[in-house]
């Protein structure tokens, strides 16, 4: 039987405000445990929360960024449950009247097509604290600790419709969302610090069936790689269970990316289990048209507009423009390199090729690249003006990566890598190569045109070897064809 997966996401996006959503406590990452939780965050008797205006503005920005409805009257509610890292015994969130209504995002697929993912809504809420198990599990008592610094940090939770059919689509959506929130400046996007966390709802059904299968939710995935693995693992688990005659149980699951182990956590709760009711301490939030227009006028260039500009103004192809416009840091790096190098297409090739490969090999983000955009642009410029060949350029790039020079020009000069473009010098090298290989010359001249095209590579290789890679490849090819006639 052919099976189809049905996937929906719930994404917690930590807003980049300086203070918490209902208090003046700091949201800075990395402080000592329990040093940034005030009386409001702890829900102590007599305290009253006050809504952080900047959190409201950031949520509106997000709604405008995904072309969603903005609910001009939205209400905060209390979601009641007990957990050690929830000191108040409830989470202040939104249910019936969230700030952001229905919207959508279009994602690019590997085959060049696009796929629309509908967004049901996005609501504002406060984050819970964090349970610390590892640091306390080595003792004889196996105790866990609680850090309440994160309690009260503002979040928007983005809830999609179940519009994705495989892990690649889900990851493409997550990457696009990451691009949007970082472009808007409402989230730093540092997933390793918990700034974005993904809950994945997965079910399977026979291909062609309309009715949805029973879904499970895998919580708190904090990397694209782990998300893809967790989804594929859960799809396979459900298919095998059904084919073996078992029923899928609606439950919450956990996935450990380091060990690639997934396990059941608890049965899945429904909304009525949480006894939602309007928060008596917070008035409805009313958003005026003037506020909407002000925020709309301050919106930055969004990824889709950036992609169109890269195509129309810089002459990039659709694929290159999609890859380079998706992440703000990558887009900024590419534009700076293209400006410094004077060739957008060549800069795109190097950013997407050698740079991306080396960053991946070293597990680095582009913002941490040892080769600056200006330095890469300088390298592109030297390729463009034939100072160096593409092959030598890789040596220059490696030297820049290893901090053996601050610019391509400095590395080229220091290592003597300047390309040989003097016709007389290249002719002398070619004459020597031909004199040392008379048999191959005779074979070439006796061959037909089809075979000559393949055989000329031998002479090109010998010439480049003799010049230590410095001879201009185009000139070598041109001169060889003349001399071999």
UniProtKB/TrEMBL annotation:
Record's keyword terms, sorted: ATP-binding, Ligase, Nucleotide-binding, Protein biosynthesis
Reactions mediated catalytically: L-glutamyl-tRNA(Gln) + L-glutamine + ATP + H2O = L-glutaminyl-tRNA(Gln) + L-glutamate + ADP + phosphate + H(+); L-aspartyl-tRNA(Asn) + L-glutamine + ATP + H2O = L-asparaginyl-tRNA(Asn) + L-glutamate + ADP + phosphate + 2 H(+)
Keyword Nucleotide-binding set for record: yes
EC number per UniProt: 6.3.5.-
Annotated Asn/Gln amidotransferase domain residues: 332-484
Pfam families: GatB_N (PF02934), GatB_Yqey (PF02637)
Reported function: Allows the formation of correctly charged Asn-tRNA(Asn) or Gln-tRNA(Gln) through the transamidation of misacylated Asp-tRNA(Asn) or Glu-tRNA(Gln) in organisms which lack either or both of asparaginyl-tRNA or glutaminyl-tRNA synthetases. The reaction takes place in the presence of glutamine and ATP through an activated phospho-Asp-tRNA(Asn) or phospho-Glu-tRNA(Gln).
Subunit composition and interactions: Heterotrimer of A, B and C subunits.
PANTHER family cross-referenced by the UniProt entry: GLUTAMYL-TRNA GLN AMIDOTRANSFERASE SUBUNIT B MITOCHONDRIAL AND PROKARYOTIC PET112-RELATED (PTHR11659), GLUTAMYL-TRNA(GLN) AMIDOTRANSFERASE SUBUNIT B, MITOCHONDRIAL (PTHR11659:SF0)
Family: Belongs to the GatB/GatE family. GatB subfamily.
Record's protein name: Aspartyl/glutamyl-tRNA(Asn/Gln) amidotransferase subunit B
UniProt organism field: Parendozoicomonas callyspongiae
């Amino acid at each position: 039987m052919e099976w189809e997966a049905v996937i929906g996401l719930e994404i917690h996006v930590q807003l980049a405000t300086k203070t918490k959503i209902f208090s003046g406590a700091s949201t800075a990452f990395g402080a000592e445990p329990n040093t940034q939780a005030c009386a409001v965050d702890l829900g102590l008797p007599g305290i009253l929360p006050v809504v952080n205006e900047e959190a409201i503005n950031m949520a509106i920005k997000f709604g405008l960024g995904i072309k969603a409805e903005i609910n001009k009257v939205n209400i905060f509610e209390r979601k009641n449950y007990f957990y050690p890292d929830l000191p108040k015994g409830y989470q202040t969130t939104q249910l019936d009247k969230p700030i952001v209504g229905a919207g959508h995002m279009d994602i690019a697929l590997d085959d060049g097509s696009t796929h629309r993912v509908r967004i049901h809504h996005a609501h504002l809420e406060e984050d819970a604290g964090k349970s610390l198990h590892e640091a306390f599990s080595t003792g004889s008592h196996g105790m866990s600790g609680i850090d309440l610094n994160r309690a009260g940090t503002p979040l928007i939770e983005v809830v999609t419709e179940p519009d994705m059919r495989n892990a690649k689509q889900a990851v493409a959506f997550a990457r696009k969302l990451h691009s949007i929130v970082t472009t808007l400046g409402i989230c730093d996007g540092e997933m390793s610090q918990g700034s974005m966390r993904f809950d994945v709802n997965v079910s399977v059904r026979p291909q062609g069936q309309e009715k949805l299968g029973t879904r499970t939710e895998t919580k708190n995935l904090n990397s694209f790689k782990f998300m893809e693995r967790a989804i594929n693992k859960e799809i396979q688990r459900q298919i095998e269970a059904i084919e073996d005659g078992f029923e899928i149980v609606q439950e919450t699951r956990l996935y450990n990316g380091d060990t690639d182990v997934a396990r059941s956590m608890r049965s899945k709760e429904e909304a009525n289990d949480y006894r939602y009711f309007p928060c008596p301490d917070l008035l409805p939030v009313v958003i005026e048209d003037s506020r909407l227009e002000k925020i709309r006028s301050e919106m930055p260039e969004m990824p889709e507009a950036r992609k169109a500009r890269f195509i129309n103004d810089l002459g990039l192809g659709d694929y290159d423009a999609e890859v380079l416009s998706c992440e703000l840091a990558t887009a900024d790096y590419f534009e700076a390199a293209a400006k410094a190098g004077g060739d957008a297409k060549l800069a795109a090739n190097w950013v997407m090729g050698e740079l991306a490969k080396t960053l991946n090999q070293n597990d680095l983000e582009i913002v941490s690249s040892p080769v600056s955009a200006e330095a890469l642009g300088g390298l592109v410029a030297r390729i463009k003006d034939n100072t160096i060949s593409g092959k030598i350029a890789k040596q220059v790039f490696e030297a820049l990566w290893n901090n053996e020079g601050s610019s391509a020009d400095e590395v080229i000069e220091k290592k003597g890598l300047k390309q040989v473009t003097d016709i007389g010098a290249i002719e002398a090298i070619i004459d020597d190569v031909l004199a040392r290989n008379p048999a191959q010359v005779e074979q070439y001249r006796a061959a037909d045109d089809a075979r000559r095209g393949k055989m000329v590579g031998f002479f090109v290789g010998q010439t480049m070897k003799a010049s230590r890679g410095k001879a201009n490849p185009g000139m070598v090819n041109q001169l060889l064809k003349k001399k071999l006639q």
